[in-house]
Design goal:
Elements (H helix, E strand, L loop, with lengths): L1 H30 L4 H9 L3 H13 L1 H14 L6 H17 L5 H14 L3 H30 L4 H24 L2 H12 L4 H18 L2 H27 L11 H11 L10 H10 L6 H29 L3 H9 L10
Helix pairs in contact: 1-13, 2-14, 3-11, 4-5, 4-7, 4-11, 5-6, 5-14, 6-7, 6-15, 7-8, 7-10, 7-11, 7-12, 9-10, 11-12, 12-13, 13-14
Length: 342
């Protein structure tokens, strides 16, 4: 057991090093491609009224996300109401943005909601997995459809299409595997051999969520609908941010391509998505004739949106979460024998 813990610690250290390297490499790349005095001029010319409207729309994107998680929870037997779901998303955003841990904001909201509602952490993690997976699949499909339509006139998009198609097929295959009885039986056999009974119980709860959704196509259709609505609002928010930037000349058709691709790019190992997000805007918007400086202004404004939203989430957490230090410590140190909330 001690040897396994040492290996686990080494793996964790290597993973953190990889995230740091990727983050700072991305920051260095986009920083070296722009003239920063032009970026500052662009920030000074932003239309603040349009920007405030864009921020309101940006926050509203969490409404369908919250409804999605609420639907998954209720279908799976975990009674999460809209207020709790929205609260979880806001607090998760805080952890993702300002306190990026190895497990991220999803682990934070899982632990906090499981504590608040006295629910199994494994079950709650299962609901998060389902709603996040469906959301990711919908995002990839939007990126694939929009890229295919626009690829006729953009060579870079034609080159990117095979990768997007491959990612779509991989996600569909994973979905089929996770929802299959074969996978559940295999996971049951493996988990039963683990020495942690609490961990086994949590794994069983998670698999129960998968089993429920394998037999609930109607509920999945609602989750897909909420995911689609979330992406539409998110894309529209990005379009409004661009309208607030002087000289940002990308066509509206670019946003259903760039915004989902950024969402996918953030799956790469990084510290809270920093660097990856901004470099992605520079790279992808260049396909549509946007200057690196304008793209960096866009990225900075989106980052400010994330920070403000995260600060609001921190207020939710501070005002409504007793015993915050133990919760933070548990988020940072989830282990097999603590994978359930009493």
């Amino acid at each position: 057991m001690t040897e396994n813990r040492v290996k686990s610690k080494k793996t964790s250290i290597l993973w953190q090093i990889l995230k740091i390297v990727v983050t700072f490499s991305a920051i260095y790349w986009f920083s070296s491609t722009v003239e920063w005095h032009s970026v500052m001029e662009g920030l000074g010319q932003v239309n603040l009224t349009m920007l405030m409207i864009a921020f309101v729309v940006f926050v509203l994107r969490l409404v369908p996300c919250s409804l999605r998680w609420k639907k998954v929870g209720q279908t799976s037997g975990y009674s999460i109401n809209f207020r709790q779901s929205f609260y979880g998303y806001m607090v998760g955003g805080f952890f993702n943005t300002f306190l990026p841990t190895g497990r991220g904001g999803d682990a934070a909201r899982a632990i906090i909601i499981a504590r608040k509602c006295n629910l199994s952490l494994g079950g709650i993690m299962g609901t998060i997995f389902v709603e996040r997976f469906v959301g990711l699949l919908v995002t990839v499909l939007i990126a694939l459809g929009a890229s295919y339509i626009a690829s006729a006139g953009i060579e870079a998009l034609r080159n990117a299409l095979p990768s997007i198609i491959l990612l779509t097929l991989i996600l569909i295959a994973l979905g089929v595997i996770f929802l299959s009885p074969w996978f559940q039986n295999l996971y049951h056999k493996i988990a039963r051999k683990l020495p942690f009974q609490k961990f086994w119980k949590s794994i069983a709860d998670m698999l129960d969520v998968f089993h429920v959704y394998r037999k609930s196509p109607k509920s999945i259709s609602w989750v897909v609908l909420y995911s689609l609505l979330n992406q539409i609002i998110f894309i529209f928010s990005g379009y409004l941010v661009a309208k607030a930037i002087f000289g940002f000349n990308a066509p509206w058709t670019s946003f259903p391509i760039v915004i989902p691709l950024i969402f996918i790019a953030e799956l790469l190992p990084s510290i809270g998505g920093y660097g990856i997000r901004e470099a992605g805007y520079v790279f992808f918007f260049s396909w549509f004739g946007v200057t690196p400086e304008a793209a960096v202004v866009f990225g900075i404004l989106q980052l400010i949106f994330l920070w403000i939203s995260a600060l609001i989430g921190s207020l939710f957490f501070i005002l409504d979460s007793p015993g915050k230090k133990p919760v933070i410590k548990e988020i940072q140190n989830i282990s097999a024998d603590k994978f359930i909330i009493k």
